[in-house]
Design brief:
- The complex is a heterodimer.
- By secondary structure, chain A is mostly helical.
- Chain A contains twelve helices and no strands.
- Chain A folds into two domains: 64 residues; 207 residues, Orthogonal Bundle (MetI-like fold).
- The longest helix of chain A has 36 residues.
- Chain A is flat, with a radius of gyration of 26 Å.
- Chain B contains 13 helices and no strands.
- Classes of the chains: A mainly alpha, B mainly alpha.
- At the A-B interface, helix 1, helix 3, helix 4, helix 5 and helix 6 of A face helix 1, helix 4, helix 5, helix 6 and helix 7 of B.
Chain lengths: 296, 293
């Protein structure tokens, strides 16, 4: 406003108001596109999972006209043909997922703490070493892994999958934790050291509480990594007793005559644990994400 | 415990005694994992795929040539499109509105969904011919008959790329959002005082400050996408007849369906000339600059 008015609120110029209105309308439109884009495959899962017919007679409607929870009930009671081991498979997936999460956080944070905070070596020695893991794509390494796990006596053992997934999740964890460790003032360590704190105390009393947002982010990442994996679980676990949900889902996919509504019901239940963990830790992680610095 | 230890100046140099022992002990678990599950399998893999005649065989296989072209298309398009859109969308999500915060929760969902069920859902949306959700929507909303998406190699590959973008874009949006939040508000305030337009604020503040984060994220995403077989395996299944396969899924077929594990490893190793420079670039970047992922 070039002219100050003597009283009342200064009037906005009309084209300015119009522009604001257009910006609002555009962001609402963008929001609608984002919702459709994000939820369409999820909606499709529910559409199929709630359909009473699982085979090729699937009704192909845009919304479920005869929704039924019978598929979920069949899962629960393990009564249908293709789902009789489903809860055992869930147990295996959860066992693998949570151990990968815990071990990645533990191994990654111990190494990043010793190198980044205690300065056992230069930061880049650890980050470069970790990145070497990525030189050969993990999808190719599965073939040598099969033989290596056999030599280690881990054939058809859940620990073979855990070891492989920790191996591929830890490098990213280390990159994140090394950078995050730099945000914690080193004077804290020095002060505690003068008071006689040991390395273990520095780790437990200073590093873990202050790096908690990054640890939560890295843990979620590791859990999602384990939950996303299919091929390592498929290749390293042979017996039916040891298969996981991801492998069971793929077997539906291979079978042309498989009941797709059961498959999607399993898919929905399988999706719940990581979503729950993520949204539970989200508030925690948000601090980690927004506290980040961008230097250099 | 510390009473009779001589006072030392605030420590900046080397570690001694118990501190050194404990620090080494802290690194040992990762060193063990690295030796047992990186050095050994990688060395073994290099040995498996070390015979030059394997590569002569690969390059004479038309399926491999298609897969190599597909891999480059898949990685280049998926990575760059998702990075660019994530960068723009992070600006949208940085707006301080309540409904946009709620929208972010929905938007993150694809990243938290496990890959196998999510991509199987994509497959079912496309594969069921006229009954798939996509074609039903096309016919109800626009009145057109959609094609059989997975019957043509390039269409199937395009959907694999879309699925990869759908799954991974939220992660990078979150990372860029964190980067934007960390830009000091003073910079924008100063720009306001100088009368800078939105466009100039974006070009002269946001872009230069986030350039490094963008570059490092792009490198990491490229490395991951080279190894990401899940969209190809579950959305298109490599259909029709290997024409939408990428190198990693073709490697599976060589190893499992044709009983040629060495050829499978060689197919995977054939991307190393593209991958190694990216890893080296990332190492140098992480060494010389700081970035919060």
């Amino acid at each position: 406003m070039s002219m100050a008015l003597p009283f009342g609120r200064p009037r906005r110029r009309p084209h300015y108001r119009l522009r604001r209105l257009l910006v609002e309308a555009a962001s609402v439109a963008l929001g609608a596109v984002i919702v459709a884009w994000s939820l369409l495959p999820v909606y499709n899962m529910f559409l199929v999972a709630l359909d009473p017919e699982g085979h090729n007679e699937f009704s192909g409607e845009l919304w479920p006209s005869h929704p039924t929870f019978a598929n979920f009930v069949a899962l629960w009671t393990e009564e249908a043909d293709d789902v009789e081991h489903i809860w055992g498979q869930f147990g295996n997936s959860i066992y693998i997922g949570f151990l990968v999460m815990a071990l990645t956080v533990l191994i990654g944070s111990l190494a990043s703490f010793a190198i980044g905070r205690m300065r056992l070596g230069k930061d880049w020695t650890l980050s470069n070493t970790a990145l070497l893991t990525y030189v050969i794509p993990s999808s190719t390494l599965i073939i040598p892994f099969l033989r290596v796990m056999h030599i280690y006596g881990l054939s058809d053992n859940l620990w073979a999958v855990i070891a492989a997934e920790v191996t591929f999740a830890t490098p990213y964890a280390i990159l994140v934790l090394l950078q995050y460790g730099k945000l914690i003032p080193s004077e804290l360590d020095d002060a505690a050291r003068i008071d006689g704190a040991s390395v273990v105390q520095l780790y437990l009393r200073i590093y873990v509480p202050l790096a908690a947002p990054a640890l939560a982010a890295v843990g979620t990442y590791a859990l999602l990594f384990a939950w996303n994996d299919y091929f390592y679980q498929y290749m390293l676990l042979m017996s039916e007793r040891h298969t996981t949900v991801a492998v069971a889902l793929e077997q539906f996919f291979d079978d042309d005559d498989a009941p797709w509504n059961y498959m999607m019901a399993i898919a929905i239940v399988y999706s719940l644990p990581p979503i729950a963990i993520f949204y539970a830790l989200r508030r925690y992680m948000a601090r980690g994400l927004t506290a980040g610095g961008i230097k250099g | 415990m510390t009473a009779n230890r001589p006072w030392r100046p605030i420590w900046r140099g080397r570690l001694h005694g118990a501190e050194l022992t404990w620090s080494i002990a802290f690194v040992l678990p990762y060193a063990a994992v690295f030796a047992a599950f990186v050095i050994y399998p990688v060395g073994y893999g290099l040995w498996l795929g070390g015979n030059p005649s394997l590569y002569a065989e690969l390059f004479s296989d038309p399926r491999y040539v298609t897969a190599a072209v597909n891999t480059v298309l898949f990685v280049a398009l998926a990575v760059n499109v998702q990075m660019f859109l994530a960068f723009l969308l992070s600006g949208f999500f940085a707006r301080r509105r309540r409904w946009i915060k709620l929208l972010l929760i929905i938007y993150i969902l694809p990243w938290t969904l496990p890959a196998v069920p999510a991509f199987l859902s994509f497959h079912w949306m496309l594969a069921a011919g006229e009954w798939g959700l996509i074609n039903r929507l096309l016919s109800v909303l626009l009145g057109i008959d959609g094609p059989y998406w997975l019957n043509q190699g390039w269409l199937a590959l395009a959907w694999d790329i879309v699925a990869n973008i759908w799954k991974w874009m939220p992660l990078w949006t979150l990372i860029f959002l964190g980067g934007r939040m960390a830009i000091p508000q003073d910079l924008y305030d100063a720009a306001d005082v100088d009368g800078a337009s939105l466009y100039r604020r974006f070009v002269h503040i946001t872009v230069p400050l986030l350039a490094n984060l963008y570059f490092i994220s792009t490198l990491i995403s490229t490395i991951w996408t080279f190894g990401d077989y899940t969209p190809v395996l579950f959305v298109s299944g490599g259909a029709p007849a290997f024409s939408s396969d990428v190198v990693s899924t073709l490697g599976f077929h060589y190893a499992l369906d044709f009983g040629r594990p060495r050829l499978g490893v060689a197919a995977g190793l054939s991307v190393l000339p593209l991958l190694i420079p990216i890893v080296i670039l990332l190492m140098r970047r992480l060494r010389t600059t700081e970035v919060q992922l």
